[in-house]
Amino acid sequence: MRDFLERLPKVELHLHIEGSLEPELMFALAERNGVALSYASVEEVRAAYDFSDLQSFLDLYYQGMSVLRTAEDFFELAMDYFRRAHAEGVVHVELHFDPQAHRVRGVELSVVMEGLSLARRRAERELGLSTALIMAFLRDRPAEEAMTLLEEAAPYWEMLDAVGLDSAERGNPPEKFVEVFERAARLGIARVAHAGEEGPPDYIRGALDRLGVCRIDHGVRCLEDPALVARLRDERMVLTVCPLSNVRLRVVERLADHPLPRLLAEGLNVTLNSDDPAYFGGGMLDNFLACHQAFGWDRATFRTLAGNAIEAAFMGEARRAELRERLEACD
Ligand code: HPA
Ligand code: ZN
């Protein structure tokens, strides 16, 4: 099965590029940029990754990314991840990035964009890895700040495949960002949002009805609301589920308790993703393998999940056709 899951052409729709920062690179960049870390070693960093909920993770996540200062840092961050993803059979990556978390440290959007753009071109050319870019708004910061960011991103609107909504979910409902998402819609930019990870099913409804999203990141708590489940099924709404993330952030106790089998049984349009691979114990292949171990899924199930992601991805139709063929040929 491992061999099959490695060969399976995997498309990743839910990844925070800042969450792909491995402790080794964190230390190297800290040294290069003269940034002080509160850890003595790589081992100490890894030992600190024992989270009780989303907020306890976010505290370390924002601290960890403080080593990212120059365009070269963002280039290395992304290339480091693209190489690992490619090595485990990932063929397309859609990366969220968090400009506000860099801006508050004095790192401008142009710096982030320069590094990420260079890495995306390099990955395409050298690894044959296609990518898409999702600029995320931090939902625990003011909506006005998100609107300012969207306006400042004008030189890059063409390069954005979507805008997204992440960070601390509870107490920050989608409705807070209606104006920003309406502006993005008028600009012709697609919208996605985290909803129903820690937040209630109503946040999923809010994201659909008020933000006009074309997919829901996480969405696992939809199961608490049967009418919502029916709607998600009828609309074939994509859910970007992140199994190892949900375990590490205690959305579920153990992977065996994860609602994934129920989501599939309900006929929902599920995809598997890694979220923050450096923090949550592994990338795409580890997530697929863990699901095989926990649920005993067969090849057909994994093929369906990989196919759902190919159909939902922000990519040109020629690339989609190519990946459909690769999936078809993988047995
Ligand atoms: N949830 C919400 N916000 C995030 C996450 C997550 O898992 N990772 C990075 N930002
Ligand atoms: Zn996420």
The Cα radius of gyration reads 19 Å
Mind telling me the CATH superfamily name?
Metal-dependent hydrolases
> Overall 3D geometry?
globular
Helix tally equals 17
Low-confidence stretches are: none
| Number of structurally distinct domains | 1
Bound ions, cofactors and other small molecules, one mention each: hypoxanthine, zinc ion
> Main β-sheet, in a few words?
8 strands, parallel
Q: Tell me the β content.
A: 5-15%
Q: Could you give the order of the helices and strands?
A: HEHHHHEHHEHEHEHEHEHHEHHHH
Mean of residue pLDDT values? 98
Summarize the structure.
The chain is α/β, with parallel strands linked by helices.
What report would you give on this structure?
- The chain has 331 residues and is an alpha/beta fold.
- The protein has one domain (2-323): TIM Barrel (Alpha-Beta Barrel).
- The chain is built from 17 helices and eight strands.
- Strands 1-2-3-4-5-6-7-8 form an eight-stranded parallel β-sheet, with helices on both faces.
- Helix 5 packs parallel to helix 7, helix 8 runs parallel beside helix 9 and helix 16 (299-312) runs antiparallel to helix 17.
- Bound molecules: hypoxanthine and zinc ion.
- Hypoxanthine (HPA) binds at residues 16, 19, 54, 61, 166-167, 194, 197, 245, 275-276.
- The site of zinc ion has 6 residues, from strand 1.
Considering the chains and any ligands shown, give keywords for the structure.
331 residues; binds hypoxanthine; globular; 17 helices; 8 strands; alpha/beta; TIM Barrel; binds zinc ion
